[in-house]
TrEMBL record:
Protein name: Homeobox-leucine zipper protein ROC2
Family of the protein in this entry: Belongs to the HD-ZIP homeobox family. Class IV subfamily.
DNA-binding region, residue intervals: 48-107
Annotated coiled-coil segments of the chain: 105-132
GO biological process: cell differentiation
Amino acid sequence: MPTTVTSTGESEMMNRAREDEFELSKSGSENIEGISGDDQADPNQRPKKKRYHRHTQHQIQEMEAFFKECPHPDDKQRKELSRELNLEPLQVKFWFQNKRTQMKNHHERSENSQLRAENDKLRAENMRYKEVLTNASCPNCGGPAALGEMSFDEHHLRMENVRLREEIDRISGIAAKYVGKPLVSYPFSNPITSRSPLDIGAGGFGVQPGIGNEIFGAGDLLRSVSGQSDIEKPMIIELAVAAMEELLRMAQIGEPLWTQGIDSSSETLNEEEYVRMFPRGIGLKPLGFKSEASRETEVVIMNHVNLVEILMDVNQYSTLFSSIISRAMTVEVLSTGVAGNYNGALQVMSAEFQVPSPLVPTRESLFVRYCKQNADGTWAVVDVSLDSLRSNPVSRCRRRPSGCLIQEMPNGYSKVTWVEHVEVDDRSVHNLYKPLVNSGLAFGAKRWVGTLDRQCERLASVMASNIPSGDIGVITTPEGRKSMLKLAERMVISFCGGVTASTAHQWTTLSGSGAEDVRVMTRKSVDDPGRPPGIVLNAATSFWLPVPPKRVFDFLRDESSRSEWDILSNGGVVQEMAHIANGRDHGNCVSLLRVNSANSNQSNMLILQESCTDQSGSYVIYAPVDVVAMNVVLNGGDPDYVALLPSGFAILPDGPNQAVDPAVGEMGSGGASLLTVAFQILVDSVPTAKLSLGSVATVNSLIACTVDRIKSAVSGESTNP
């Protein structure tokens, strides 16, 4: 690797040459120190040895202080400084030149050390792969493997080398280094296949530094999203740095900034104290907006490095929080961090946050995300809305500094303190969901932390090696478990994306006779290997149940009670063929169900189901799957080509007092529920066909009948505890 650091010897020679030049230039008009005028007049007199001028400690301190404020003084400043310090302007000039050279050399040595560390890491990786190639044996005969058989490892090695070289080339200082200077923008090119958190280091436990997978549109898209071209990058950076400072204080300070809520498990932000403590912020709250602020702490089973990576990679971030994020994208990357990690990473993002119901509008936000490693070793990731930098903001939601503080814990755990602070116009929320939204549970920190904790347990289940082989139906092979979990992950993402009131969706409301309003929309599926081709009809409705959320969840996920509400099973007996437990709660699992129907046409019907619950809500999501395709998945095959049309349920508490049972830390056993029922049905296998009114009426009837069955079944349970 080429080295640009100037050696110490060269620097000393340069300093001496400049001092000689100063002494020579001075000798033409003044007496050389230590030589009398008579000595100069006598040509035969041997000149005495020159003595170099040494700056006093006071002079050095004054010039050091001036250098910190202005490393490039002009002639006027040098003359004024030389007069104050009793030095020649040329001496001051040379001192500043030498000081700049010294600082440059110091920075270059530091950067070279980082580059050498990256090089050493690259060499170690190369050696590891060479050892694999050298020691590999043929799986058939046991002899040395041919090079062709190791093409995957060679390809992986080349890709890793290219990635490391690109990362080294892009190394730059942390974001503050660029204040006031042009920033590098990386346009979107050579897209990498979208990754799930399941792909990181075999389940989110391997170190995989790198930037987000999707960088869209750079400056042009930033301008199109913001509506203005006057958002200057230095202003964005200064906003992000101030937001980071605010987040750290919000996460660490207790009273009087945060006070105890109505129940002992929540905290309330003291808004007067907040305004006093953070007077600058992002401006006054817009008229008609209300504030939502919450803070929550949890210890999760994921190391801090991978957690930071997921938050900084838009694909992994939106996948991990698919129940909260309907859409997310990276608009522009302003800094990728330093030395192969995300310290100093800065990117402009847009996201749409959701509640699993068509009755709650999504919240769109354009914000900057900044990642920083603190002096105590903790990591922080902060978001702050860019509305304060836009001349005509149109957003109905803006994020004040929000994000999380991540502390490394033993045994691969992390302690996460999450802060959510938004201002929003929520007047269009349906009355049924207003108590939940007003409490902050719908979009607050408790929901983010609960989802993170559950998803980390899900990822950890992929790595589990002590699966008991004696239990019937338990999938014990790592390949089969990972493929089935990836398929279920895609099913959940598809369900959540098709049930919310996203701006990307166009819902049509159908009012039934006495039943809840059903909202329907259509999607055309073409050339999508994960979805059957044709016209897909989405239908969803939300309603209130006078039954505790936990009881509703247990009823809907239990295969023995499925025939009470599932019309499509035609009263057949449902049996669990296989399952994967993926959390502390026994309700968190992925199951493969078989419907033993009297109808011979449905004898081979299988259902993939994922049920999950945490302190903010519960889901039961399922989809019919093909027998042949599932056999491939269970043997570790690619799950991306299995066609899915998911349906299911989202169960939320109807208010803040019913959210969590403090004794067990999960959905409470009291109160009432808000239940969303959603179906995705293929109504025509021809994508260009027109949707018939008969198809809409059939789906409307199906969902209304399902709602009536659920009400009848669970209400009967609630009256007979």
